[in-house]
Amino acid sequence: MKKLKELYPETNSDVEIKSICINSKEIKEGDLFVCTMGVTADRHEFIDDAIKNGASAVVVSKDVGEKKVPIIKVKDTNKELPFLCQKFYNYPDQALTMIGVTGTDGKTSTTTIIQTLIGSDKCGYIGTNGRSCAKFERDNPNTTPDAQNLYLYLSEFVEAGCTYTAMEASSEAFFRGRLQAMEYDLSAYTNVTSEHLNIHGSFENYLESKMMLFKQTKKDGYCILNHDDPYYEQMKSACNGKVLSYGVDQENDLQIVSYKVYPTHTDISYKYDGKEFKVDSPLLGDFNVYNLACALLCCLALNFKLEDLISRIKDIKVSGRLELLETNTPYYVMVDYAHTPNGISKLLNFVHTLDINRSIVVIGQAGERDYLKRPKVGNVVVENATYAIFTYEDPRSEDPKDICNDIIAECKDTHDNFEIVVDRREAIQKAIDMAQEKDMVLILGKGNETYEKLKTETIYFNDIEEAYQAVENRKKKEQEKH
User: 24-50: per-residue pLDDT in tens?
Assistant: First the structure.
């Protein structure tokens, strides 16, 4: 809690501010309402509602006349918000070693690995799988939260005794200005492929948003880059801190020497500081060899001892990422967050290196998101999976049938190894019911997320729970037959 004059001395107001809010419907008594410009809404239009709900002061960038509460006018409320939140929560980012990870695929895995290697008692995590430290685990509304939530979460980490934070830094967060007050001690990227063009307009703009992470890295900080990614040089050109790289060539600071993927683990040889070392990773897939390399190099740059890091690799578990469910069935069920053409292709290629028969994929595409990606996803799935069931995935205001039709637009005349089952629960059940011995059912797109965003509401929905329920439903039906 702060007095308004602590945030804006020119007001000389003793009005107490309990929190900062940008949604008039969520205002509580004593909140400071900031009238940001949303994607579809100008929040200046809701000032009276905010005051009615208890706002004690309002920050604006337009003339709104006199109100019953203090009005603070700034040049740009969107740009003001992160700096205001940073000040309100006593600069928690400056009390933490801030680690930011960006990339089209692999952000969640890499940040989760970093938290595990450092230890959740010291390191908080913010990203797609929520926010967590040793003392709590909670959901997030966004991969990278809005500023008023982000700085609140960081202050929670400080209060919990954390000294590090590993966070996913999404391109949209930079585009929306959520992170412009942040300076990173260490930044890293996993890879870059085409994504979110509905937001950025072009791949060049998308890449530029990714590069902002490195521009906002401290000069005495570190930038950890994937040397094997095609956009390595462009990312390097944006780096403000010291550049360290990982990849297969000897010139890298951390070299991926060799690896062998098994159905339950991966044996990897890395080389660092002239010495080769071996690890037994519980993570599967060659992409996770890179994610682990990135995370290890991040921690080594922060002066953690290699032997300590190696000892913690066995504890790594990334919920909803290549998560093989314990179903006690003759077929396999795996849940993964893969939702981009590149991520899906890599995942399916890996799965077919395992000792399985057919791959049965359940997948959709999000509404109000990059519609140009949808037919690419459809092509990748039907070309690399044995059978596909296309369904909805956070359709929002769009008709889920239209989204499914977009997905099959380019493959419907060339392939017949798919069907549309619009309801996601029914689609998962259909896939489970189809599975025969040694088949692999892959439920993709949402990982361990706990919601579905529909047209009029957000409902609770979790792919892992739904998969287990579908398995139980099948077992029950089979028992009834006998």
Answer: 999 999 999 999 988 778 999 999 999
Q: How many domains does the chain have?
A: 3
Integer-rounded Cα radius of gyration of the chain: 24
* Residue 126 near residue 150 (C-beta atoms within 8 A): yes
In tens, the pLDDT along 272-306 reads: 999 999 999 999 989 999 999 999 999 999 999 99
CATH of the domain at 46: 3.40.1390.10
- Print the SS3 string covering 254-287: EEEEEEEECCCCEEEEEEECCEEEEEEECCCCHH
Q: Which two tokens stand for residue 158?
A: 């400080």
Q: How far apart are CA 253 and CA 178, in angstroms?
A: 32
User: In which residue are the tokens 């967590």 written?
Assistant: 132
Q: Rounded distance, CA 429 to CA 440, Å?
A: 14
Task: Examine the domain organization and report whether 100 and 235 are in the same domain.
Answer: yes
Do 329 and 431 meet the contact criterion of CB atoms below 8 Å apart?
no
CA distances from 32 to 64, 82, 268, 414 (A): 16, 14, 52, 56
Boundaries of domain holding 107: 92-315
Instruction: Return the exposure string of 445-476: e unless at least 16 CB atoms fall within 10 Å of the residue's CB, then b.
Output: bbbbbbebbbeeeeeebbbbebbbebbeebee
Residues 290 and 164 in one domain: yes
User: β-pairing, 130-133 with 136-138?
Assistant: antiparallel
Residue 264: exposed, middle, or buried by beta-carbon count in 10 A (0-12, 13-18, 19+)?
A: exposed
Evaluate whether 89 touches 155 at the Cβ level (below 8 Å). Answer: yes
How far is Cα 247 from Cα 258, in angstroms, rounded to an integer?
A: 11
Cβ atoms of 50 and 24 within 8 Å: the answer is yes
Write down the pTM of the prediction: 0.84
